[in-house]
Amino acid sequence: MGSDDKIVDVNFESLLRIFTVPEAPDSTLGNIEQKLSQNLNEFLREHIVAEEKPLSEIEKDFLNSAIPETPTFVSEHTQHLLDTVVSHSVHTSAPSFIGHMTSALPYFLMPLSKIMIALNQNLVKIETSKAFTPLERQVLGMLHRLIYQQGDDFYQHWMHSAEHSLGAFCSGGTIANITALWVARNNALKADGDFQGVGKEGLYHAMMHYGYKGMAVLVSERGHYSLKKAADILGIGQQNLIAVKTDSQNRICPIALEETICHLKIQNIKPFAIIGVAGTTETGSIDPLDKIADIAEREECHFHVDAAWGGATLMSNNHRYLLKGIERADSVTIDAHKQMYIPMGAGMVLFKNPSAMTSIEHHAEYILRKGSKDLGAHTLEGSRSGMAMLVYSSMHIISRPGYELLIDQSIEKAKFFANLIEQQQDFELISKPELCILTYRYVPLKTKKALAIASAKEKEELHQLLNELTKFIQKKQRENGRSFVSRTRLTPEKWGRMETNVFRVVLANPLTDKGILHSVIEEQRKIAKTSPIVLPKIETLTSTILQL
Ligand SMILES: *Cc1c(COP(=O)(O)O)cnc(C)c1O
Fold first, then answer.
1. Does ligand 1 come within 6 angstroms of the Cβ of 174?
2. Which parts of the sequence carry N6-(pyridoxal phosphate)lysine (predicted)?
3. pLDDT at residue 35, as a whole number
4. Is the CB–ligand 1 distance for residue 277 below 6 Å?
5. Whole-angstrom Cα distance, residue 326 to residue 287?
6. Residues of the chain with pLDDT > 90: what percent?
7. Distances (CA, A) of 300 to 180, 268, 393
8. Is the distance from the beta carbon of residue 368 to the nearest atom of ligand 1 less than 6 Å?
């Protein structure tokens, strides 16, 4: 309650009002709506405070575990949200925040998502979604066509077929990857003679029937952690998600892949799926998809491509070639909430074969009846929102050539930034951008020279210190609140596979300009020089090595 002694009663009348009548235009919420629609970026800039507050401080606003016994006025609560939640949110759409895969959103999505929420359709079954079901099937058709490029006849035949699915819409890449591996597992351990299939009889009986000692999934060591979750819940075991060696450019080594498969088969472990990554989360690298496809075909393995982040590149006719071979995949994951600029909660998995999802089909009497067009028969999730509408709208409003421009400019910008880093005497580019992700670190010029002549032991020591320095700079920069880059750990071939902390930058936001990129490294350089402990240690060791 506020101090003005306004008391809100719990009464049915006012509850009816909150279901039907909007807030007045001059109310707090009405005001916010107006400001949001006038200038979204300005609103966010005004209300998100730049200075970082320790999480322990923020937690103090969220300590009460009792559900309130008295209602609050909407206006009062809105102010409360502005003060406690909005102010300490991350400004993901700020052009200087270049560390996230999910960045700025086009403004039209705000009012459009209100329509989506107001309609509150449930895509699990046709009775609660009507037009949203064919809409979602069309969106899946569009993405399927983007990958597999079948003709009009194909899509006319399959897109709206009750017994088939070109894919599944879901909350994100994690569920999409799980769905793909679920289909792959069930196809590899399908019904056969007396055996009714792994879905019915479980993994133990499936292994007994097929005479396997285990099931394995192969992916490069840069594979996304969601695959571990998939291996876990599908009963494969995290240990049987096998990480295959990568080359100097963070791409899977096909020879190592073949060797690993051989090794597994000798142990009677069935490699049932091979995953190619098209845009790794850390470096944006793309695996040699054609070569993986050859191996998967020969081994009769399911070939899945995790293009959660990089899949949108297919929209650019100028860069689509980078993903060559993706059209040979049995399934592909694409996140619309990454490079398609859709709000969080929009993932998709597409299957080349419209019948592939039969292996995970589920029916129930009151819902998902056989022969119905209910999307829920083929989705891991049950109730689902109409997010597909936002993808549908963006495809129409931005269009394929519009996305091409967005993709192309981000790749250009990444190249520009990589060049800029290479021009700096005191920075080191660690991974070149194939798409719009790159990694780098700060290394004082003299230390670079020292590294060139250092002994193995000295090198390792310097490396440890540089790792600490990278961590220090990244953390301070985040705390300063003006800009943000993320941080990850790689094992670059150049440094003998030593674990190396790096800054990671994703240049997807179209509002990020070259001036901002200049100031990001300027700020990092400044911060580095304020490092009280690590930098002096680095300087001392450097001098010792250079015998200064
Ligand atoms: C982001 C990402 C995922 C996981 O997607 P979520 O939407 O976060 O569940 C999987 N694979 C790759 C390569 C990714 O970049």
1. yes
2. 338
3. 85
4. yes
5. 10
6. 82
7. 16, 15, 38
8. no
What does the DSSP 8-state code read for residue 135?
H
Distance, CA of 123 to chain centre: 23
Which CATH superfamily hosts domain 409-546?
Aspartate Aminotransferase, domain 1 (3.90.1150.10)
- Sign of the torsion angle spanned by Cα atoms 426, 428, 433, 438: negative
| Beta strands 331-335; 347-351: pairing state | antiparallel
The CB density around residue 290, as the number of other CB atoms within 10 Å, is 14
Minimal CA–CA distance to 274: which of 208, 325, 311, 336? Answer: 325
Atom of ligand 1 nearest to the CA of 280: 13
Q: What local confidence, expressed as pLDDT, does residue 5 receive?
A: 54
pLDDT of res. 41: 80
Q: Cα-flanking dihedrals φ and ψ of residue 249, to 5°?
A: -110, 25
Place of tokens 């008391």: 7
- Tell me the C-alpha distance between 368 and 197, whole Å: 21
Q: What is the pLDDT of residue 3?
A: 45
Q: Bridge partners of 439?
A: 431, 504
Report how far residue 466's alpha carbon sits from residue 95's, in angstroms, rounded to the nearest whole number. Answer: 27
Inter-residue contact 391 to 140 (CB < 8 Å): no
pLDDT of residue 365: 67
Residue 292 CB-density burial (10 A; 0-12 exposed, 13-18 middle, 19+ buried) = buried
Q: Report pLDDT for 15.
A: 86
CA distance 133 to 126: 6
Using 50 as the pLDDT threshold, list the residues of the chain that sit under it. 1-3
Ligand 1 test: best mutation among 224, 251, 304, 434, most atoms within 8 Å of CB? 224
Q: Does ligand 1 come within 6 angstroms of the Cβ of 463?
A: no
Could you please state the CATH topology (level 3) that the domain comprising 121-384 is classified under: Aspartate Aminotransferase; domain 2 (3.40.640)
Strands (E), 251-292: 269-277
Q: Is 281 in the pocket of ligand 1 (CB under 6 A)?
A: yes
The pLDDT assigned to 40 comes to: 81
Give 303's strand partners. 274
How many angstroms separate the alpha carbon of residue 388 from the centre of ligand 1?
Answer: 18
Shortest-distance atom of ligand 1 to CA 309: 15
Nearest to 219 by CA among 245, 198, 192, 238: 245
Q: Which two tokens stand for residue 293?
A: 């496809």
Ligand 1: which residue has its CA nearest to atom 6?
Answer: 173
Query: What is the rounded distance in angstroms from the CA atom of residue 548 to the CA atom of residue 540?
Result: 10
Contact 186, 234 (CB under 8 A): no
Nearest alpha carbon to residue 184 among 368, 349, 362: 349
Sheet containing 241-244: order of strands: 167-170, 347-351, 331-335, 302-306, 269-277, 214-220, 241-244
SS3 104: coil
Q: What is the DSSP string of 154-172?
A: HHHHHTT-TT--SEEEESS
For the CA of 173, the closest atom of ligand 1 is 5
Give me the residues paired with residue 335 across strands: 347
**What stretches of 326-461 adopt beta strand conformation (E)?**
331-335, 347-351, 427-431, 437-442
Residue-level pLDDT at 367:
65
